[in-house]
Amino acid sequence: MSNRHPLRLAPLPGTEWQEHTRAALASLIPPERAHPAGAGNVLSTLVRHPELARAYLPFNAYLLKHSTLSPRIREVALLRVVHRRDCDYLWSHHLPIARSAGLTDGDIAAIRDGNLADVRPDLTDQAVLHAVDDLVDRGTISTPVWNTLGRHLTDQQRMDLVFTVGGYELLAMAVNTFGVEDEAQ
């Protein structure tokens, strides 16, 4: 995938990494990966502002590793939001994670199109897609969609869903604005 967003902030070069740079990543990656190659371009860009990275990354780690959402629901939601925010970097980096969470190539294509019903008649997945689209389009989940989600998710899961969508929308905006390039480029 090519990056359609201009590079504005390059990853911090390895020669400029210091102990506080590596420490800023501690909530998300193990110490042995706290270097440019191990951290990847998005984290290597975020550590240009270690205090911000240290504040933001524990929240992102919660969304990715500790939320009440199943990995499948999380990936359905975040793939939809990063697609809606035109973030190729996060889309491509989450495809293997989504597949590990049980999403098929057909599911992934349907998430991009916004309609999983033709591929998988799972009402939870459909409600999650509707919730993501509501949040992206209107900044809130409509009452009918909220009520449908309530038949499949607990209140805590619905809260985690809202924060997952918002968290990945924020990250997609940052990645696009900074012009983070895929490591394969």
From TrEMBL:
This is Carboxymuconolactone decarboxylase. Residues 50-113 form the Carboxymuconolactone decarboxylase-like domain. Coiled coil: none annotated. It comes from the Bacteria. It comes from Mycobacterium simiae (Mycobacterium habana). GO terms for molecular function: peroxiredoxin activity. Gene3D superfamilies: AhpD-like.
